[in-house]
Amino acid sequence: MDNRYFPLVVVVVMLALGLTLTIDDFRRAATLRRPLAVALLCQAVVLPAVCLMIAEMFDLPSNLAVGLMLMAATPGGTTANILSHLFNGDLALNLTLTAINAVLSIIAVPLILAFSMTWFLGNGRFLPLQWDKFLGVFGLVLIPTAIGVGIRHRFPQFARRLQTPIRIAAAVLLVLIIVATLAKSWGTLSHYFGVLSGAVATFCVTSLTIGYLAPRLMRLAGRQAIAMSLEIGMHNGVLAMGIALSPQLLNNAEMAIPAAVYGIIALFIALAFIFIIRRLDPTFRAPSPTSEPDELSSA
Q1: Among candidates 118, 101, 98, which has minimal Cα distance to 109?
Q2: Is Transmembrane among the key words of this record (predicted)?
Protein backbone atom coordinates (compact mmCIF):
# COMPACT_ATOMS: atom_id res chain seq x y z
CA MET A 1 0.00 0.00 0.00
CA ASP A 2 1.55 3.29 -1.15
CA ASN A 3 2.37 5.74 1.67
CA ARG A 4 0.70 8.55 -0.27
CA TYR A 5 -2.71 7.03 0.47
CA PHE A 6 -2.36 6.87 4.25
CA PRO A 7 -3.78 10.38 4.84
CA LEU A 8 -6.89 9.09 3.03
CA VAL A 9 -7.07 6.32 5.64
CA VAL A 10 -7.24 8.92 8.42
CA VAL A 11 -9.92 10.85 6.53
CA VAL A 12 -12.10 7.74 6.01
CA VAL A 13 -11.82 6.70 9.67
CA MET A 14 -12.74 10.13 11.03
CA LEU A 15 -15.52 10.60 8.46
CA ALA A 16 -16.99 7.25 9.53
CA LEU A 17 -16.84 8.41 13.15
CA GLY A 18 -18.51 11.71 12.32
CA LEU A 19 -21.35 10.01 10.46
CA THR A 20 -22.33 8.15 13.66
CA LEU A 21 -22.70 11.38 15.65
CA THR A 22 -25.59 13.80 15.90
CA ILE A 23 -25.93 17.29 17.29
CA ASP A 24 -28.05 15.80 20.07
CA ASP A 25 -25.08 13.67 21.16
CA PHE A 26 -23.12 16.84 21.84
CA ARG A 27 -26.08 18.51 23.57
CA ARG A 28 -26.59 15.46 25.78
CA ALA A 29 -22.94 15.64 26.83
CA ALA A 30 -23.70 18.85 28.73
CA THR A 31 -26.19 16.99 30.93
CA LEU A 32 -23.79 14.25 32.04
CA ARG A 33 -21.79 15.51 34.97
CA ARG A 34 -20.19 12.53 36.69
CA PRO A 35 -19.81 10.23 33.65
CA LEU A 36 -18.37 13.10 31.63
CA ALA A 37 -15.88 14.07 34.33
CA VAL A 38 -14.72 10.47 34.84
CA ALA A 39 -14.37 9.80 31.10
CA LEU A 40 -12.44 12.99 30.39
CA LEU A 41 -10.08 12.46 33.33
CA CYS A 42 -9.36 8.88 32.30
CA GLN A 43 -9.01 9.59 28.58
CA ALA A 44 -6.96 12.79 28.74
CA VAL A 45 -4.83 12.30 31.87
CA VAL A 46 -4.84 8.80 33.37
CA LEU A 47 -4.41 6.75 30.19
CA PRO A 48 -1.49 8.74 28.75
CA ALA A 49 0.26 8.56 32.14
CA VAL A 50 -0.34 4.80 32.39
CA CYS A 51 0.81 4.29 28.81
CA LEU A 52 4.00 6.24 29.54
CA MET A 53 4.72 4.02 32.56
CA ILE A 54 4.09 0.86 30.53
CA ALA A 55 6.43 2.01 27.76
CA GLU A 56 9.13 2.73 30.36
CA MET A 57 8.48 -0.52 32.26
CA PHE A 58 8.90 -2.63 29.11
CA ASP A 59 11.86 -0.46 28.01
CA LEU A 60 10.48 -0.04 24.51
CA PRO A 61 12.72 1.53 21.83
CA SER A 62 11.91 5.19 21.27
CA ASN A 63 9.89 4.84 18.06
CA LEU A 64 7.82 1.98 19.45
CA ALA A 65 7.19 3.94 22.66
CA VAL A 66 5.97 6.95 20.66
CA GLY A 67 3.75 4.62 18.63
CA LEU A 68 2.24 3.18 21.80
CA MET A 69 1.51 6.69 23.11
CA LEU A 70 -0.01 7.68 19.76
CA MET A 71 -2.34 4.69 19.89
CA ALA A 72 -3.35 5.58 23.46
CA ALA A 73 -4.23 9.12 22.36
CA THR A 74 -6.66 8.05 19.65
CA PRO A 75 -10.39 7.89 20.41
CA GLY A 76 -12.59 4.81 20.26
CA GLY A 77 -15.67 4.79 18.11
CA THR A 78 -17.68 2.22 16.19
CA THR A 79 -16.18 -0.92 17.74
CA ALA A 80 -16.87 0.30 21.27
CA ASN A 81 -20.45 1.14 20.34
CA ILE A 82 -21.07 -2.26 18.74
CA LEU A 83 -19.62 -4.17 21.69
CA SER A 84 -21.58 -2.04 24.15
CA HIS A 85 -24.78 -2.88 22.30
CA LEU A 86 -23.93 -6.62 22.25
CA PHE A 87 -23.10 -6.73 25.96
CA ASN A 88 -26.02 -4.58 27.16
CA GLY A 89 -23.95 -1.51 27.94
CA ASP A 90 -25.44 1.96 28.04
CA LEU A 91 -25.37 2.67 24.30
CA ALA A 92 -26.69 6.24 24.68
CA LEU A 93 -23.76 6.99 26.99
CA ASN A 94 -21.40 5.34 24.49
CA LEU A 95 -22.61 7.58 21.69
CA THR A 96 -22.27 10.64 23.89
CA LEU A 97 -18.73 9.71 24.96
CA THR A 98 -17.84 9.01 21.33
CA ALA A 99 -18.87 12.56 20.49
CA ILE A 100 -16.84 13.92 23.40
CA ASN A 101 -13.77 11.87 22.51
CA ALA A 102 -14.02 12.92 18.87
CA VAL A 103 -13.79 16.56 19.93
CA LEU A 104 -11.14 15.85 22.58
CA SER A 105 -8.95 13.95 20.11
CA ILE A 106 -8.66 17.01 17.88
CA ILE A 107 -6.39 18.55 20.53
CA ALA A 108 -5.30 15.49 22.51
CA VAL A 109 -3.77 13.49 19.65
CA PRO A 110 -1.31 16.16 18.42
CA LEU A 111 -0.48 17.32 21.98
CA ILE A 112 0.19 13.83 23.35
CA LEU A 113 2.16 13.04 20.22
CA ALA A 114 4.29 16.17 20.64
CA PHE A 115 4.93 15.34 24.31
CA SER A 116 5.80 11.73 23.48
CA MET A 117 8.30 12.70 20.79
CA THR A 118 10.01 15.09 23.20
CA TRP A 119 10.06 12.51 26.02
CA PHE A 120 11.28 9.53 24.02
CA LEU A 121 13.20 11.13 21.15
CA GLY A 122 14.57 14.26 22.81
CA ASN A 123 17.60 12.54 24.37
CA GLY A 124 17.50 14.82 27.40
CA ARG A 125 16.73 17.97 25.46
CA PHE A 126 13.48 19.71 24.62
CA LEU A 127 12.18 19.22 21.11
CA PRO A 128 10.16 22.25 20.01
CA LEU A 129 6.61 21.59 18.90
CA GLN A 130 6.61 20.84 15.18
CA TRP A 131 3.71 23.03 14.14
CA ASP A 132 3.43 21.54 10.65
CA LYS A 133 2.88 18.06 12.09
CA PHE A 134 0.61 19.40 14.86
CA LEU A 135 -1.58 21.29 12.41
CA GLY A 136 -1.50 18.39 9.94
CA VAL A 137 -2.84 15.96 12.54
CA PHE A 138 -5.30 18.60 13.78
CA GLY A 139 -6.70 19.15 10.28
CA LEU A 140 -6.90 15.48 9.33
CA VAL A 141 -8.83 14.72 12.53
CA LEU A 142 -11.07 17.80 12.67
CA ILE A 143 -12.18 18.36 9.09
CA PRO A 144 -13.54 14.89 8.16
CA THR A 145 -15.19 14.54 11.58
CA ALA A 146 -16.95 17.88 11.15
CA ILE A 147 -18.01 16.93 7.61
CA GLY A 148 -19.44 13.64 8.89
CA VAL A 149 -21.39 15.38 11.67
CA GLY A 150 -22.64 17.97 9.17
CA ILE A 151 -23.84 15.30 6.74
CA ARG A 152 -25.58 13.43 9.56
CA HIS A 153 -27.28 16.66 10.69
CA ARG A 154 -28.46 17.89 7.27
CA PHE A 155 -29.02 14.56 5.49
CA PRO A 156 -29.67 11.92 8.19
CA GLN A 157 -31.07 9.27 5.83
CA PHE A 158 -28.14 9.64 3.45
CA ALA A 159 -25.72 9.46 6.40
CA ARG A 160 -27.30 6.22 7.62
CA ARG A 161 -26.93 4.71 4.13
CA LEU A 162 -23.28 5.76 4.06
CA GLN A 163 -22.44 4.22 7.44
CA THR A 164 -22.38 0.59 6.29
CA PRO A 165 -20.15 1.02 3.21
CA ILE A 166 -17.80 3.33 5.12
CA ARG A 167 -17.55 0.84 7.99
CA ILE A 168 -16.73 -1.89 5.46
CA ALA A 169 -14.13 0.38 3.87
CA ALA A 170 -12.63 1.08 7.30
CA ALA A 171 -12.45 -2.66 8.06
CA VAL A 172 -10.75 -3.36 4.73
CA LEU A 173 -8.34 -0.51 5.34
CA LEU A 174 -7.57 -1.94 8.78
CA VAL A 175 -6.48 -5.24 7.24
CA LEU A 176 -4.49 -3.56 4.47
CA ILE A 177 -2.74 -1.13 6.77
CA ILE A 178 -1.83 -3.85 9.30
CA VAL A 179 -0.35 -5.97 6.50
CA ALA A 180 1.52 -2.96 5.10
CA THR A 181 2.86 -2.03 8.53
CA LEU A 182 4.06 -5.54 9.32
CA ALA A 183 5.66 -5.86 5.88
CA LYS A 184 7.51 -2.55 6.21
CA SER A 185 8.82 -3.27 9.70
CA TRP A 186 9.08 -7.04 9.89
CA GLY A 187 12.67 -6.93 11.13
CA THR A 188 11.83 -4.61 14.02
CA LEU A 189 8.64 -6.51 14.84
CA SER A 190 10.33 -9.92 14.89
CA HIS A 191 13.09 -8.58 17.13
CA TYR A 192 10.79 -6.88 19.64
CA PHE A 193 7.63 -8.97 19.23
CA GLY A 194 7.67 -10.47 22.73
CA VAL A 195 8.18 -7.26 24.66
CA LEU A 196 5.95 -5.22 22.33
CA SER A 197 3.03 -7.64 22.45
CA GLY A 198 3.38 -7.71 26.24
CA ALA A 199 3.30 -3.91 26.40
CA VAL A 200 0.30 -3.65 24.08
CA ALA A 201 -1.65 -6.36 25.91
CA THR A 202 -0.83 -4.77 29.28
CA PHE A 203 -2.02 -1.39 28.06
CA CYS A 204 -5.22 -2.88 26.61
CA VAL A 205 -6.13 -4.73 29.82
CA THR A 206 -5.16 -1.76 32.02
CA SER A 207 -7.18 0.77 30.02
CA LEU A 208 -10.28 -1.47 30.01
CA THR A 209 -9.89 -2.03 33.76
CA ILE A 210 -9.49 1.69 34.51
CA GLY A 211 -12.50 2.43 32.31
CA TYR A 212 -14.59 -0.02 34.31
CA LEU A 213 -13.38 0.50 37.88
CA ALA A 214 -13.41 4.33 37.81
CA PRO A 215 -17.19 4.62 37.23
CA ARG A 216 -17.94 1.70 39.57
CA LEU A 217 -15.97 3.36 42.37
CA MET A 218 -18.12 6.44 41.76
CA ARG A 219 -21.20 4.22 42.15
CA LEU A 220 -22.32 4.49 38.54
CA ALA A 221 -24.47 1.67 37.15
CA GLY A 222 -22.91 -1.50 35.75
CA ARG A 223 -24.28 -0.81 32.25
CA GLN A 224 -22.67 2.62 32.31
CA ALA A 225 -19.39 1.14 33.54
CA ILE A 226 -19.34 -1.27 30.59
CA ALA A 227 -20.02 1.59 28.18
CA MET A 228 -17.24 3.71 29.69
CA SER A 229 -14.82 0.78 29.84
CA LEU A 230 -15.22 0.09 26.13
CA GLU A 231 -15.13 3.77 25.18
CA ILE A 232 -11.99 4.44 27.25
CA GLY A 233 -10.35 1.06 26.69
CA MET A 234 -10.83 0.63 22.93
CA HIS A 235 -8.65 2.77 20.67
CA ASN A 236 -8.60 3.47 16.95
CA GLY A 237 -5.56 1.61 15.67
CA VAL A 238 -6.30 2.52 12.05
CA LEU A 239 -6.13 6.22 12.87
CA ALA A 240 -2.85 5.76 14.74
CA MET A 241 -1.32 3.79 11.88
CA GLY A 242 -2.52 6.31 9.31
CA ILE A 243 -0.90 9.18 11.24
CA ALA A 244 2.33 7.24 11.74
CA LEU A 245 2.68 6.17 8.10
CA SER A 246 1.51 9.34 6.32
CA PRO A 247 4.42 11.05 4.53
CA GLN A 248 2.95 14.46 5.41
CA LEU A 249 2.87 13.59 9.14
CA LEU A 250 5.24 11.16 10.90
CA ASN A 251 6.30 8.96 7.95
CA ASN A 252 7.66 6.37 10.39
CA ALA A 253 6.74 2.71 9.94
CA GLU A 254 8.12 1.69 13.35
CA MET A 255 5.72 4.07 15.11
CA ALA A 256 2.83 2.24 13.44
CA ILE A 257 3.82 -1.20 14.77
CA PRO A 258 2.18 -0.92 18.24
CA ALA A 259 -1.14 0.02 16.67
CA ALA A 260 -0.84 -2.88 14.20
CA VAL A 261 -0.29 -5.34 17.06
CA TYR A 262 -3.14 -3.69 18.96
CA GLY A 263 -5.43 -4.09 15.95
CA ILE A 264 -4.79 -7.84 15.98
CA ILE A 265 -5.28 -8.58 19.70
CA ALA A 266 -7.43 -5.80 21.20
CA LEU A 267 -10.84 -7.13 20.15
CA PHE A 268 -10.15 -10.56 21.69
CA ILE A 269 -8.93 -8.99 24.93
CA ALA A 270 -12.01 -6.73 25.11
CA LEU A 271 -14.39 -9.66 24.54
CA ALA A 272 -12.67 -11.73 27.24
CA PHE A 273 -12.62 -8.76 29.64
CA ILE A 274 -16.33 -7.99 29.32
CA PHE A 275 -17.22 -11.68 29.60
CA ILE A 276 -15.26 -11.95 32.86
CA ILE A 277 -16.72 -8.72 34.23
CA ARG A 278 -20.25 -9.91 33.58
CA ARG A 279 -19.46 -13.11 35.47
CA LEU A 280 -17.82 -11.38 38.44
CA ASP A 281 -19.80 -8.18 38.96
CA PRO A 282 -22.84 -8.86 41.22
CA THR A 283 -24.81 -6.30 39.22
CA PHE A 284 -24.96 -8.72 36.29
CA ARG A 285 -25.17 -11.94 38.30
CA ALA A 286 -28.22 -10.79 40.24
CA PRO A 287 -29.66 -7.74 38.48
CA SER A 288 -32.18 -5.66 40.33
CA PRO A 289 -34.14 -2.91 38.55
CA THR A 290 -34.00 -0.73 41.65
CA SER A 291 -30.47 -1.47 42.84
CA GLU A 292 -28.76 1.35 40.93
CA PRO A 293 -30.08 4.67 39.66
CA ASP A 294 -29.79 5.56 36.01
CA GLU A 295 -27.15 8.27 35.90
CA LEU A 296 -28.40 9.56 32.56
CA SER A 297 -31.71 10.51 34.12
CA SER A 298 -30.31 11.74 37.43
CA ALA A 299 -27.26 13.66 36.23
Answers
A1: 101
A2: yes
The separation between CA 37 and the C-alpha centre of its own chain, rounded to angstroms, equals 18
Angstrom distance (rounded) from CA 99 to CA 97:
5
Task: Report which of 140, 175, 145 is spatially closest to residue 249, judged by C-alpha positions.
Answer: 140
Q: Please provide the distance, in angstroms rounded to a whole number, between the alpha carbons at the two ends of the chain.
A: 47
Q: How far is residue 242's CA from residue 76's CA, in Å, rounded to a whole number?
A: 15
Domain of residue 199: give its range: 5-279
Q: Does 298 map to a domain?
A: no
Interatomic CA distance for residues 285 and 283, integer angstroms: 6
Higher pLDDT, 74 or 175: 74
Return the closest-CA partner of residue 223 out of 141, 147, 296: 296
- CB neighbour class for 64 (10 Å; exposed up to 12, middle 13-18, buried from 19): buried
- The tally of domains found in the chain comes to 1
The alpha-helical segments, DSSP class H, found in 74-185 are 78-86, 91-121, 131-154, 156-184
Q: Is residue 77 part of a domain?
A: yes
Query: pLDDT tens-digit profile of 252-266?
Result: 888 888 988 888 888
Residue-wise pLDDT for 165-224, tens only, equals 777 776 676 677 677 767 766 776 777 888 889 999 999 999 999 888 888 887 777 778
